[in-house]
Structure formats: structure tokens, C-alpha cells
């Protein structure tokens, strides 16, 4: 591991003043430490921001605000989260071990890097690690790679469970950059597809800190589900995951939300399937049709076609489970 200096920032302004191109912020460190060990991240300095940003969860009439330093464990126990946005707690509990949840921060969860095996193998070409070197997974071992939104530049998937829940609930990301400039980014736009810049996972400016996330309070607290399919039931990243949330009046679907992990470079919303569900009767037949709409035009890679029926079944199961929550 490359030697580095370490400092603890007292507040956001101090953290931003210390930030340079050769330094990195560290919060829980649950992903960054791995990157340091593999020499993927090689900063000259680490800036501890655990005292710089909020670790509080606050509620207003319109939304729940989650501070950037709120630990993942707190998201699973907070009374306001459990009452108004329980899908978030459900998604977090599906990811990581209790030890990691105790350390991981909300903002850090949004910024974690892919777990693509080629990204972590510094002997192999990877456009996310070394732009222009190529994507080894494109024609290599891509059984865990993306189903949608990929291109020849990168087929990696985003690993977060929390982010799938936040995507489904139309959260917003708030940040502060140099000169105390305030930044507000709809969650659907925060993470990006590979396009021509696979090195970039999101659109957060380099010298900016996520201060908090806001989730609008909407009628999705009663009918929701999170389904995660993985290679083993212990701590593992999703092959496919689905967050579903329904607003029901009787058995009529007023509004639906569907998001997935393990399928794209970013948490993926199934907007066409959501639109189909609006106004329909909540039934097995309706859910099966929505799942078919989501999966009918997917073009898999050479070794991940098995994910398509898996995804279809996960969407149906999540929607069906939403009726039982």
C-alpha cells in the first residue's frame, strides 16, 4: 500500500480546503480501504470527514433528510425511516454484513466502486481503472456483468443495494463544492452510464462533498419489497435485485416504482413497466406482463443470458411481495 498522510477535517469548509487532485475523502472506509490495498486508489493524503458532515436523520412534512455520515445500520433502525420509507431499511439489510453496515456511511455507499473482477485485477486492461486500455469483461468472464446500458467501453455493474431503494423512491442528492456552492442532483441522474467516460461512476464534481440525501414522503410505505438474488445467501453482491413499491387503492395500482441492481452501470429504473402498471389491477397476470415488458428487449452478453429469466422472476416476485408487506 502506498504511504499517505492523514488529517481529520472539523467541518465541510476545512475538508474542501484540504482537498487536492492527489487526496481523497474517507468516511467509513469500507470500500476505499480495499482499493488502497489493491493499489487501485493511490492518494497522497486521506481526509477524514466523519466529523465534517451530518450523521442525523431529520423529517419534515415533505421529505426525510439523511445526513451523509449516517451509518447504514441507522437506516435500518430509525423510526422515521421504518414508518415512511421502509423500503430503504429493507434494501440496506439485504446488503453487506452487520460489521460493514456499522461502519459504512450513506454518502460513501453512493460513491462505492464496482466489484468487477477485472477492475480489481491490476494486471488486466480495464477502462474504469486505466482509460483507453479496453474492457476485459466485454469478451471475457462477464457472467456477473451488465444486461442493459452497457457499451464496448464498460460492462461493469453498480454494487449498492441502498442505491436501488433510493432510485425507486426518487431521492435527491445534496452536496457542497468549493466556495460553498450548493449542488442538488436528482438521484436518477447522479450515477451515469459508461458512455465515453467509464472511469466516472457519477456526476458529482471532484472537489465536492455529499452533505445529505432527501427522500420525498409518498404513499409507498405499505406496499413494497426488495428481492435480491445472489450466489450465496451470506454477504454477497446481487446477481439481480429488484426494489418495488406500489401505491394502491383497493386492488388498483395508482402508481408503481421498479428499480434494479446488478443489471447496469447505475441503479436501473424500469419506467416502461411502471407506466404499464398504472391503473391496472394488482394481480399475478398484471405483474407477469410488467416483468415481460421490462425484459423483452434485453440483449445479454456472451455469458450472462441466464440473468434475463432470473430478472423476470425477481420482478414478478417483488411485485407480488409488495402486496404482503
Please work out how many helical segments DSSP would assign: 13
What structural category characterises the helix and strand content?
A: alpha+beta
Q: State the total count of DSSP E strands.
A: 12
Helix content: 25-40%
Instruction: Report the principal-axis shape.
Output: globular
Order of helices and strands: EHEHEEEHHHHHHHEEHEEEEEHHH
List low-pLDDT spans: none
Strands ordered across the widest β-sheet: 4-5-8-6-7
Overall pLDDT: 96
Q: How widely separated are the two ends?
A: 46 Å
Largest sheet: 5 strands, antiparallel
- What is the CA-atom radius of gyration, in angstroms? 19 Å
Strand content: 15-25%
Describe the overall structure:
The protein is of the alpha+beta class and 325 residues long. The protein has 13 helices and 12 strands. Strand 4 (57-59) and strand 5 (63-67) form a beta hairpin. Helix content is 29%, strand content 21%. A 5-stranded antiparallel β-sheet has the order 4-5-8-6-7.
Key terms:
single chain, alpha+beta, 5-stranded antiparallel β-sheet, 4-stranded antiparallel β-sheet, 13 helices, 12 strands
Topology:
Blueprint: E1 5-8, H1 12-18, E2 23-26, H2 32-37, E3 45-48, E4 57-59, E5 63-67, H3 72-75, H4 79-84, H5 86-93, H6 98-103, H7 106-111, H8 117-120, H9 162-168, E6 172-177, E7 181-186, H10 187-190, E8 208-216, E9 224-229, E10 240-249, E11 252-261, E12 268-269, H11 271-277, H12 284-295, H13 307-322
Concise account of the structure shown:
The protein has helices at 12-18, 32-37, 72-75, 79-84, 86-93, 98-103, 106-111, 117-120, 162-168, 187-190, 271-277, 284-295, 307-322, and strands at 5-8, 23-26, 45-48, 57-59, 63-67, 172-177, 181-186, 208-216, 224-229, 240-249, 252-261, 268-269.
Amino acid at each position: 500500500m502506498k504511504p499517505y498522510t492523514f488529517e481529520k477535517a472539523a467541518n465541510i469548509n476545512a475538508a474542501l480546503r484540504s482537498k487536492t487532485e492527489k487526496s481523497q475523502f474517507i468516511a467509513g472506509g469500507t470500500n476505499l480501504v480495499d482499493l488502497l490495498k489493491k493499489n487501485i486508489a493511490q492518494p497522497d493524503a486521506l481526509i477524514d470527514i466523519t466529523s465534517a458532515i451530518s450523521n442525523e436523520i431529520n423529517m419534515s412534512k415533505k421529505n426525510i433528510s439523511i445526513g451523509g455520515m449516517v451509518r447504514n445500520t441507522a437506516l435500518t433502525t430509525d423510526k422515521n425511516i421504518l414508518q415512511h420509507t421502509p423500503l430503504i431499511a429493507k434494501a440496506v439489510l439485504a446488503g453487506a454484513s452487520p460489521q460493514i453496515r456499522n461502519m459504512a456511511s450513506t454518502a460513501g455507499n453512493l460513491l462505492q466502486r464496482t466489484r468487477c473482477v477485472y477492475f480489481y485485477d491490476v494486471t488486466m486492461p480495464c477502462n474504469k481503472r486505466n482509460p483507453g486500455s479496453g474492457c476485459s469483461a466485454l469478451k471475457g468472464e462477464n457472467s456477473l456483468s451488465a444486461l442493459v446500458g452497457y457499451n464496448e467501453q464498460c460492462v461493469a455493474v453498480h454494487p449498492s443495494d441502498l442505491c436501488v431503494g433510493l432510485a425507486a423512491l426518487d431521492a435527491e442528492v445534496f452536496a457542497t463544492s468549493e466556495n460553498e456552492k450548493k449542488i442538488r442532483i436528482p438521484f436518477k441522474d447522479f450515477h451515469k452510464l459508461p458512455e465515453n467516460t467509464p472511469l466516472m461512476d457519477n456526476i458529482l464534481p471532484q472537489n465536492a462533498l455529499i452533505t445529505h440525501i432527501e427522500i420525498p414522503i409518498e404513499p409507498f410505505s405499505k406496499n413494497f419489497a426488495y428481492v435480491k438474488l445472489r450466489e450465496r445467501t451470506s454477504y454477497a453482491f446481487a446477481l439481480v435485485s429488484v426494489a418495488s413499491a406500489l401505491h394502491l387503492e383497493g386492488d388498483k395500482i395508482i402508481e408503481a416504482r421498479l428499480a434494479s441492481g446488478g443489471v447496469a452501470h447505475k441503479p436501473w429504473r424500469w419506467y416502461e413497466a411502471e407506466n404499464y402498471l398504472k391503473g391496472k389491477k394488482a394481480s399475478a397476470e398484471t405483474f407477469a406482463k410488467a416483468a415481460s415488458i421490462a425484459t423483452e428487449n434485453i440483449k445479454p452478453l456472451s455469458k450472462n443470458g441466464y440473468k434475463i429469466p432470473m430478472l423476470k422472476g425477481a420482478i414478478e416476485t417483488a411485485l407480488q411481495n409488495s402486496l404482503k408487506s
